[in-house]
Amino acid sequence: MGRDLHSQWAKTRAWIAFGANLPSVVGTPLETLRAAVKQLRDAGVTVTAVSRVYETPCFPAGAGPDYVNFVAEVQSADAPEELLQTLHRIEARFGRVRKLRWAGRSIDLDLLAVEQEIRPDVVSVRAWITLPFVEQSVRAPDQLILPHPRIQDRAFMLIPFADLAADWRHPILDKTVREMLDARPTDEKSEIKLMPEVEILTD
């Protein structure tokens, strides 16, 4: 039974957002994120593609150094909930402590989407999507929410996501990554800068 359960996910695409703006035990944010990709592969997750790498201003403005951001496309035999646990274990190895919302961090791994999967249900995901901004700063889900409820609101997620899967369609909002990105304000998108000649997959 377990083998059959895992086989259903083996060829399923998922997308993970990588971000960091503080050093970790292994070095700079970029070095940390490279190491996290290796840890992900060591955990049995196949990394099939990585977006270009970007620099994004810290939010709120002036709260810390710029972030390094990119998105990886992966395949895993694990169910989405198991994949999320793998991401949390990797974050813990690099010193991530989940205390303050939107605080600077040595690593941030967000499971953006797993094909057209919805977790736990449409009503719950819609509730997190429409959560008032003031509550977003103090509340975090205690379970997996898929797709990630803030994809449509964050150019720093959408820009690298579009590098890999611009035509992926949100199963609830019925908009592609490209359409959601086009809807973001121009000034928000212009703040996100490409880091040229940066490679994440080195082998």
Automatic annotation (TrEMBL):
SUPFAM superfamilies: 6-hydroxymethyl-7,8-dihydropterin pyrophosphokinase, HPPK (SSF55083). Residues 16-165 form the 7,8-dihydro-6-hydroxymethylpterin-pyrophosphokinase domain. Keywords: ATP-binding, Folate biosynthesis, Kinase, Nucleotide-binding, Transferase. It is an enzyme of class 2 (transferase). One of its GO terms (biological process) is folic acid biosynthetic process. It comes from the Bacteria. One of its GO terms (molecular function) is kinase activity. Pathway: Cofactor biosynthesis; tetrahydrofolate biosynthesis; 2-amino-4-hydroxy-6-hydroxymethyl-7,8-dihydropteridine diphosphate from 7,8-dihydroneopterin triphosphate: step 4/4. Its EC number is 2.7.6.3. Pfam families: HPPK. Belongs to the HPPK family. PANTHER family: 2-AMINO-4-HYDROXY-6-HYDROXYMETHYLDIHYDROPTERIDINE PYROPHOSPHOKINASE (PTHR43071). Catalyzes the transfer of pyrophosphate from adenosine triphosphate (ATP) to 6-hydroxymethyl-7,8-dihydropterin, an enzymatic step in folate biosynthesis pathway. This is 2-amino-4-hydroxy-6-hydroxymethyldihydropteridine pyrophosphokinase. The lineage of its organism: Bacteria, Pseudomonadati, Pseudomonadota, Alphaproteobacteria, Rhodobacterales.
